[in-house]
Write a structure and sequence with these properties.
Blueprint: E1 8-12, E2 17-18, H1 23-29, E3 33-34, E4 42-50, H2 65-69, H3 73-85, E5 88-92, H4 93-98, H5 106-109, H6 114-123, E6 131-135, H7 146-149, E7 155-159, H8 161-167, E8 176-180, H9 189-199, E9 204-207, H10 211-219, E10 225-231, E11 261-268, E12 271-277
Parallel strand pairs: 4-9, 4-10, 5-6, 5-9, 6-7, 7-8
Antiparallel strand pairs: 1-11, 2-3, 10-12, 11-12
Length: about 280
């Protein structure tokens, strides 16, 4: 793949065991380690942000992460690796609405490395594609979208009893299950993880947002690590449109700031690929 250059490793903290990346993925990414707990799932997030902290442009048709990264191939390659490792990928309904045609698998985000991603999953004993989990308190989810209809992935919609009633007015695809975890209201990280465990008791859970969902996981100290791509874009903000940062709906500093430990810094051109570890309550 001559047009895709290897990431430059600027800093890597020894943390866990080396993962058996196939030769091409190892060439492109370098060394990758994970400290996977024996007694619970490891929950890790992935996001891309502009230099001024914008993670979504907040406008129809240009709200996805690709518009923040500049559709950077190295960012997509890394996202593919993180999905290839995952037993479960969790996104919020807002992320789904920003990416109507999306399916949360490694080969979807970077098709030209599909064989390498599959080799990695095979080596790790992951025979199935990751369970795609959509979180929606209201149940306002279009079940005709490709993620539900393609048959390429199994899906779980985590919602409320009220949300399930709304969803049941549509035809439920055979590959999709519904977990109603409470009667109404917002759904917390622990409730999401409990519903996931009952369907897919995997060891690796990837959280891809959006900002409200990311805030919920940080608030409950349920995220072990964050992979954050820093894109060399200044997106800007004004009063005409909401452009969220990494976290929405939760306030931590100055009373209760959450501090991370830098695990890795890699560089691809002018993009930085950062990785932070956070203290958790260990309930994943």
């Amino acid at each position: 793949m001559p047009d895709l250059l290897r990431l430059d490793a600027l800093f890597d903290l020894t943390r866990g065991s080396d993962l058996p990346l196939p030769s091409e993925l190892s060439r492109l990414y370098g060394r990758l380690q994970f400290p996977i707990p024996a007694e619970r799932a490891f929950v890790y997030g992935n996001f891309v942000s502009s230099v001024d902290g914008v993670v979504s442009l907040g406008e129809p048709g240009v709200s996805g992460g690709g518009n923040i990264s500049g559709f950077n191939k190295q960012d997509a390659m890394v996202m593919g690796i993180l999905r290839a490792l995952a037993d479960v990928v969790i996104v919020g309904a807002g992320t789904l609405r920003e990416s109507l045609d999306h399916i949360w698998t490694a080969e979807f985000i970077f098709p030209s490395l599909a064989n390498e991603y599959q080799d990695l999953r095979t080596t790790l004993g992951k025979s199935k594609t990751p369970l795609n989990v959509i979180v929606s308190s209201s149940g306002s989810v279009d079940l005709s979208l490709p993620v539900f209809q393609s048959g390429l992935v199994a899906c779980l919609i985590v919602t409320t009893i009220e949300g399930e009633q709304r969803l049941r007015t549509q035809s439920l695809p055979i590959s999709t299950r519904i977990a109603a975890v409470k009667h109404s209201g917002s759904i917390g990280a622990s409730e999401i993880l409990k519903a996931v465990r009952e369907v897919q008791p995997g060891k690796m859970i990837l959280l891809e947002g959006g900002p409200i969902l990311m805030g919920d996981f940080f608030a409950e100290q349920a995220l072990d690590e964050l992979f954050l791509t820093f894109s060399p874009q200044i997106a800007g903000r004004d009063k005409s449109v909401e452009r969220p940062g990494l976290i929405s709906g939760k306030l931590f500093a100055p009373e209760n700031p959450l501090w991370g430990t830098l695990v890795s810094v890699k560089r691809g051109g002018s993009h930085l690929f950062l990785r932070y570890a956070f203290e958790t309550k260990g309930e994943g």
